[in-house]
Design brief:
The protein is of the alpha/beta class. It has three domains: 5-105, no CATH class; 146-171 and 278-451, Rossmann fold (3-Layer(aba) Sandwich); 175-273, Rossmann fold, CATH 3.40.50. It is built from 17 helices and 13 strands.
């Protein structure tokens, strides 16, 4: 049966609706000639009648070891269940897969005391994460500081503000969390190569975990990445491939490579496990607050995954009985105007996210076609949160504000978070009495280029008279 142009338009919309931002370019290209021959054999209700499909060529048949409370994978759209395997797309509706748990067993078997006896890393929550404990590569990731920020709070007019400082992780960003879980999953599936598409932080974390576990690594990055992030990836001895184009181009290529290479692409074929690592941020915030929830959280947004998993993690704590009260936390999202597809959709009232071409100082957030954007929009609206975009100029201002008031030097993504926090407070979306947590997801040494000439404020010869003149001309 021939497939008409109108059917193909509807089919494209269905694919976007189901968040297939990572389908191979060859699959997308097939629409031009009405060829869907990459996918013979199983009818899907989303496909024009008569078209067929299977999995990617070279799809792995690997099976992983069972994890105590993991029941399998489940499609976020149609709810179809799958076994534990390195898969990320539903064969029935093309929806993204996520890990499914036996929550009743978790409620009966997990206690605060068990967690508190665990290591002071994210792996104290091993029972809440989808990774076989005997495959974990623990670089002491997580349980990062949650510290009060009284000077910044006073400047913004907040009564209580906390900073979750994930720059304290081994490779200095929150990406260590997701890679730690992904690496454990990959090892359980028998992979010996870790790979990723990255805007920098993920490449750092992936290469480090591969080195520590004796795996090989391949990082694909945009060619205009900050030099500090490139150096902090190549130092671990793996392959670093810089490609012309932006992150979305690199990510799409990696999706295609995942069909032909027997590599564990942490944010493609093992993405369901990888994404769950972000929940550990929610677990830690609640435990560090004395097993309770904050009133508000501000989260930087790239793909939108961290935003959705923060919300999921808070809900799970209640569902398994670790926190008695249901979460009432309002989660807010932060983007920079130069790459703000999720914020634009939120402000316009759209259900779908329209892809953009990134042009932002915050390169670690420069994902123009966010895979979890649709779900982030749903989550924000369900919890009463806002998703805001701040000007590019305010990003560096946010970095400087945090440094000046709290002695914390964050990367540009953290500048987006602080600038958005300030915007939300000024707009009344966060009230002065809301106990608020700002996620600071990386350190500023990763993004030195963003601050231009950050050299000395003064200079002169090494003499007492010269120094006295400096401070006479410009007193402290």
């Amino acid at each position: 049966m021939a497939v008409g142009a109108h059917d193909l338009v509807d089919y494209r919309q269905a694919l976007r609706r189901h968040a297939i931002a990572t389908l191979p370019q060859s699959f997308e290209d097939s629409f031009g000639s009405a060829r869907l021959d990459l996918w013979p054999a199983l009818e899907s209700p989303l496909m024009p009648q008569g078209t067929k499909r299977v999995c990617y060529p070279g799809r792995s048949e690997r099976k992983g070891g069972l994890v105590k409370y993991v029941s399998g994978l489940r499609c976020r759209e149609c709810g179809r269940d799958y076994p534990v395997a390195p898969e990320h797309v539903c064969e029935h509706c093309f929806g993204p897969l996520e890990v499914a748990y036996d929550y009743e067993a978790m409620r009966a078997g997990i206690t605060r005391e068990e967690i508190e006896r665990g290591p002071r890393t994210m792996w104290r929550y091993a029972s809440l994460l989808p990774a076989p404990e005997d495959r974990v590569v623990d670089l002491a990731v997580g349980f990062t500081p949650l510290r009060l920020a009284p000077r910044l709070a006073a400047e913004l007019g907040l009564s209580k503000l906390w900073l979750k400082l994930d720059g304290a992780n081994p490779t200095h960003s929150f990406k260590d969390r997701v890679v730690s879980v992904a690496a454990a999953a990959a090892r359980s599936f028998g992979y010996d190569v870790l790979a990723c598409a990255s805007t920098g932080n993920l490449a750092n974390a992936m290469a480090a975990h591969a080195a520590a576990s004796g795996m090989r690594s391949v990082a694909f990055i945009p060619s205009d990445l900050e030099s500090g992030k490139v150096a902090a990836t190549s130092i671990y001895g793996g392959r670093v491939v810089a490609l012309d184009g932006g992150y979305d181009d690199v990510n799409r290529l990696c999706a295609e490579l995942s069909g032909s290479k027997q590599w564990a692409f942490v944010n493609v074929n093992v993405r369901p496990y990888y994404a769950e690592g972000s929940k550990s941020l929610a677990f830690e915030v609640a435990e560090q607050l004395g097993w309770r929830y904050p009133d508000a959280v501000v989260v930087p947004m790239a793909s939108g995954s961290l935003f959705t998993k923060m919300a999921k993690g808070l809900r799970e704590l209640h569902r398994v009985g670790l926190v008695e009260a249901e979460p009432r936390t309002i989660i807010h999202g932060a983007q920079a105007e130069g790459c703000s597809p999720i914020a634009a959709a939120f402000l316009a009232g759209f259900e779908e996210v329209r892809a953009v071409k990134p042009n932002t100082i915050a390169k670690s957030l420069a994902i123009g076609n966010p895979a979890d954007g649709y779900y982030a929009l749903k989550e924000a609206r369900a919890t009463g949160g806002k998703i805001a975009a701040v000007s590019e100029a305010s990003v560096a201002d946010g970095v400087r504000l945090l440094a000046r008031t709290e002695g914390v030097f964050t990367e540009t993504a953290g500048g987006v978070t602080i600038a958005t926090l300030e915007h939300l407070v000024r707009a009344g979306s966060i009230s002065p009495n809301d106990e608020t947590v700002a996620l600071i997801t990386g350190i500023g040494l990763k993004t030195i280029e963003a601050f231009g000439d950050a050299g000395p404020t003064d200079s002169g010869p090494p003499s007492l008279d010269a120094v006295e003149r400096i401070f006479e001309e410009a007193p402290l």
